[in-house]
């Protein structure tokens, strides 16, 4: 197993020396091949999910969005290889539309929980500490079960200034950080909360004409550390260029009937409706 892990890491590092423009072309070729091979099992899942989410759309729109989705997935793969390269000279472009909203929330609390979805390219969120060094970024991280691979990913993400929080015991680590934060350092807790929960006790929210299970642990953790809540809307402007827009969820969830998790799911659905091809989870059993 260790040999397999080392092989995977070194193969990844070799690919990272390929220029990003070439990686994009390779990705487009792979995506075109996937579109040609209609019998692939995940293609049926993708089409089923698209029909579930957009029942009003015709076959032509579904087919076109499905094709664009495979190209976006391969584009994401190319950028993943590029972003974790040992030497990264071709940075992706990121602009933040309204950083002032984040700054206002930090006037109320040292902690802001920032929800996001698995959009192309969610890894761009790790650029925030580099652009705004006054903020620290905390990210949830779920172990792959492969020690060497975990170490490689943790090292790569930490290079951008992010601190990884294990999903197995996030509250314990966050409370430790809060208790030691005597200088009132500002922390963003990033959470990609649109994956299907594995545990039995989950929160249920309406999502594209269905009621689905959603992780609500981030909301509970945010309440424990007295955090504000925002949603990071990720917008793909063009290949390699992204924009983040922060959207207010709720300032004080104790004063409302609707949960922060429900608000997050609503913003997630709006985000998907605007750019359906950039959501990375169409090929999974999410509905």
What is the compact description of this entry?
The protein is of the alpha/beta class. Helix content is 44%, strand content 20%.
Q: Structural class of the secondary elements?
A: alpha/beta
Q: Average pLDDT, to the nearest integer?
A: 89
Strand order of the largest sheet: 1-9-8-2-5-3-4
> How many structural domains can be distinguished in the coordinates?
2
How far the N terminus sits from the C terminus, by CA atoms, comes to 34 Å
Rg (CA only): 19 Å
Count every beta strand, where a strand is a DSSP E run of 2 or more residues: 9
Portion in strands:
15-25%
Largest sheet geometry: 7 strands, mixed
Oligomer: single chain
* H-E string: HHHHEHEHEHEHEEEHEEH
Describe this entry's structure for a reader.
This protein is an alpha/beta fold. It folds into two domains: 2-83, no CATH class; 93-276, no CATH class. It is built from ten helices and nine strands.
Can you give keywords for this protein?
10 helices; 9 strands; alpha/beta; 20% strand; two-stranded antiparallel ribbon; 7-stranded mixed sheet; 287 residues; 44% helix
Helix-strand blueprint:
Elements: H1 2-15, H2 20-36, H3 41-53, H4 59-83, E1 93-96, H5 99-106, E2 111-116, H6 128-131, E3 135-141, H7 147-158, E4 162-166, H8 170-180, E5 186-192, E6 203-207, E7 210-214, H9 217-224, E8 228-238, E9 241-248, H10 260-274
């Amino acid at each position: 197993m260790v040999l397999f892990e080392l092989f995977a890491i070194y193969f990844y590092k070799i690919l990272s020396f390929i220029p990003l423009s070439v990686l994009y072309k390779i990705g487009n070729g792979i995506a075109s091949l996937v579109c040609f091979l209609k019998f692939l099992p995940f293609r049926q899942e993708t089409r089923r999910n698209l029909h579930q989410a957009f029942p009003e759309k015709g076959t032509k729109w579904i087919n076109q969005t499905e094709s664009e989705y495979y190209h976006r997935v391969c584009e994401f793969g190319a950028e993943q290889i590029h972003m974790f390269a040992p030497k990264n000279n071709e940075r992706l472009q990121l602009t933040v539309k309204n950083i002032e909203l984040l700054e206002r929330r930090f006037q109320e609390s040292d902690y802001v929980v920032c929800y996001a979805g698995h959009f192309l390219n969610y890894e761009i969120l790790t650029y925030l500490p580099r652009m705004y060094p006054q903020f620290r970024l905390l990210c949830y991280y779920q172990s792959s079960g492969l020690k060497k691979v975990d170490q490689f990913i943790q090292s790569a993400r930490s290079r951008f200034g992010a601190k990884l929080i294990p999903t197995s015991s996030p509250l314990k680590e966050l409370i430790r950080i809060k208790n030691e934060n005597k200088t009132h350092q500002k922390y963003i807790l990033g959470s990609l909360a649109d994956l299907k929960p594995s545990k039995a006790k989950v929160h249920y929210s309406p999502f594209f004409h269905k009621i689905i299970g959603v992780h609500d642990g981030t909301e509970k953790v945010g309440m424990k550390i007295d955090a504000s809540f925002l949603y990071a809307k990720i917008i793909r402007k063009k290949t390699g260029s992204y924009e983040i827009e922060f959207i207010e969820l709720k300032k004080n969830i104790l004063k409302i009937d609707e949960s922060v998790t429900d608000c997050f799911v609503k913003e997630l659905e709006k985000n998907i409706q605007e750019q359906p091809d950039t959501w990375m989870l169409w090929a999974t059993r999410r509905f």
